[in-house]
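Q: I'm writing up a methods section and want to include an example of the input and output format. Could you take the sequence below and give the corresponding predicted structure tokens, formatted cleanly so I can copy it straight into the document?
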Amino acid sequence: MVEEMTSLCGDLAYSNVYMKKKVLEHFEGNVIITEMNGKQNVVTFKSSAHKFYTDFTAEQTETTVSVRKWQSLKLQVNW
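A: Here is the clean output for your methods example:
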């Protein structure tokens, strides 16, 4: 957002720090601002972040269970 403002307004654009502060104030703490995949100041709603985290951990658990099943099967076959 700040990059776009800078291209339109030049030196009159707000800074990253000011915009971050205003976004947090406007959404009253319902957003998270982080770095993601090398991009700075990625804004995510907490409700969305919770869903992403839940989906990710569920996927990781599924993967772990699948790996354990295969390891167990492998052990049984080797006996």
